[in-house]
Amino acid sequence: MDIDPRRLRVLHEVARRGGVMRAAEALHLTASAVSQQLALLEREVGLALIDRSQRRAALTPAGRVLAGYAERIDEELAEARRELIGFTERLAGPVSIAAFPTVIRHLLVPVLGKMAERHPQITPRIRELYGSPALRELRLGTVDLALTEQDADMAAPARQSIISHPLYVDEYRIVVPPSWTEVPRDVADLADAPWVAGPPDQACGRAMERLATLHGFTPRRVHFVQEFPPTLALVAAGHGVAIVPSLALLDVPDGEVVVTGITDVGARRLDAVTRLGRARSGEPDPVQAVVIAALREAADELTVRLGERWTAR
């Protein structure tokens, strides 16, 4: 029985993507081409691998067994690529990075410049993805590294097959409209204020919940906004107060919003997340390690910039 490993990859994608159409998109093939490869693989093994009696293609028991072997082969090949990098004199190749806007703006853009100077053979490719979608693509192997956020007062969630590498602790700030005649001195002064709230599954949304619980008040959420620029625009126009990370304030002109001196707001933790290799040592491959080191260097520079900004105030 001869099995073409290229067809195993097609079966692997169908299994992990949950269907022929999604597998075709991931492989940059037509659905017809994927179906043809599956039919040829079935002919090679002499067994039905896809249950075509359902509306959505599903794997048969034999298909699931073979897909499991295909996954292990894919992991072995990925590990081989990682180890072979160590034999090259110069690090090279593409590295796909999933990240969200503030991190792209203030960490990744500087890193791209450093990488171009120091490691011109490495080609970073940025994808704007946030939260669960970014981690899903990391597990699927379509991105090599994901930048994530987590409220620093919450324990990092246990995740199988991936590992987090700490980058930066980004302090939260409470901002209020410039039209307010008195700047709040503590959280109690904001108990009746209108809030521009972030999604509850994002770090700032969780920070608001924690702050409200700690101080015993129910925030009056008037606006629900996901991104920081519109959040800050609403605050600047006098429509509410908000919790934002320090990074989000770097591009805001002085005086557009008022940053309070309230200090017990907490912080978010920014991590670089990679897949565990076959050895499950937790060490990123050499190319990923170079990117993570550059990110940490950029994070250290940000700490200095933010310190100077708050000192100037």
Automatic annotation (TrEMBL):
Presence of the UniProt keyword Transcription in the record: yes
Pfam families annotated for this entry? HTH_1, LysR_substrate
Indicate the segments forming the HTH lysR-type domain, all copies. Answer: 3-60
- Record's GO cellular component terms: cytosol
Q: InterPro entries, from UniProt?
A: HTH-type_LysR_regulators (IPR050950), LysR_HTH_N (IPR000847), LysR_subst-bd (IPR005119), WH-like_DNA-bd_sf (IPR036388), WH_DNA-bd_sf (IPR036390)
Q: Which Gene3D superfamilies match?
A: Periplasmic binding protein-like II, Winged helix-like DNA-binding domain superfamily/Winged helix DNA-binding domain
The family line of this record is:
Belongs to the LysR transcriptional regulatory family.
Recorded protein name is DNA-binding transcriptional LysR family regulator
Protein species of origin? Streptosporangium becharense
